[in-house]
What we know:
Blueprint: H1 11-23, H2 26-44, H3 52-55, H4 60-70, H5 92-104, H6 109-125, H7 127-137, H8 140-152, H9 154-162, H10 167-183, H11 190-206, H12 214-227, H13 233-258, H14 268-275, H15 294-303, H16 305-322, H17 324-340, H18 348-373, H19 379-388, H20 407-422
Amino acid sequence: MAQITIPVLRGPDRFRSGWVRVRTSFFWITVIAFALRLGFILIAHTYRFKPDQNNFSFGYEMGRIGRAIAIGRGFADPFDSPTGATAWEPPLYPYLIAGVFKLTGVYTSASALILLSLNSIFSALTCIPIFLIARRCFSERVAGWTAWGWALLPTVMYWSTRWVWETSLAALLLGVIFWLTLKLEELDGAKVWIAFGLLWGVAALTNTSLLSFLPASGLWPWYRRWKKGKTSLTGVLLATLFFSATIAPWLVRNYQTFGKFIFIRSNFGAELRLGNGPGADGTWMVYLHPTQNVLAMRRYQELGEIAYVAERKQEAMRFIRDDYGRFAWISVKRFIYYWAGRPRASGFPGLADNSLFLASSVLAIWGLGRALRKRQPGAWLFLWLVLLYPAAYYFVFPHARYRHPIEPELGILIAYVISEAQKKPAAAPAT
């Protein structure tokens, strides 16, 4: 009878074998990512927000709306004063804040700890779609690099550990949508199209800016399936139906509340004015915001939200029409600030931050160009994301937070171009 030899792994071999399993384990990547974020929150005490401006930095407008919901005033009061019903922000995250406030108190440290922990969970879970996208479009090596980079890099952790906002949730949703868009090329059945529509509905109620990617995300699987001779009409109709059904209750609420159609949120005109007007330089004119400007707050209270936003939009459009060349130049500056970082007056630390920010943008664009040149799977979908998502900010105003939802995909492109640079050139033939 033949003997079976069982290999015994020695120390280094056992470690190497364990690392091979861990480096591609969704469980360990996610757990380590969350542990690091939670550890930083507890050590740095980021859950202790400054109480100035009546705790406004705790969630800003979303925190104010969450407070109003928690104390029984409904979806209202985006600023400090009671101003009535609002559509200033999308509804999903303010309701999440309100739920936590009802459990552990309004603007308490316990509430902050829970909300930042939830953000950290969203950020940690983003490692999973990152890995899946990178492995499908490039390689498992790129997937591992990007997922672990997202898990470990301090710059990635910033928004989830310091800001009570929807930023980390938006990045997770967009990552899942991007991966599902790629998978729809080959998946069949009604359930996946229903999930696609529902995900887009949740994304719209979380961050309406994500909808700029919806046309490309919807057309991509239809076109890819059409090239393979697959039908998509039923799936597209199902996705559209469930997307519409997801956002419809909020649209009805807005119409009943304000007497006119408002697509999810109302404040675009006010945001447009904060970037366009006398003194515009490509950055956010924060001194015009109702929370920083007594006259603007008084005007908001006098007119009501909808009329105030309309008035601010008229001011911005008048400024734009008066000098299209000036508007174009300011928009170019906004484009630069979006990808290279906004001007800072903090000396070397600000210069270092902006240099890293610019370097990451350059590497991502370089990786995108190489992916297109080498016809990598999904390269054109990356291109449409990079073209469409930031476009609105070139005409309003940029902020580092506005790039975060697409940073998982940018990180994949960065890892890809670095992996390509590490490849050894082919040996020259012997003469």
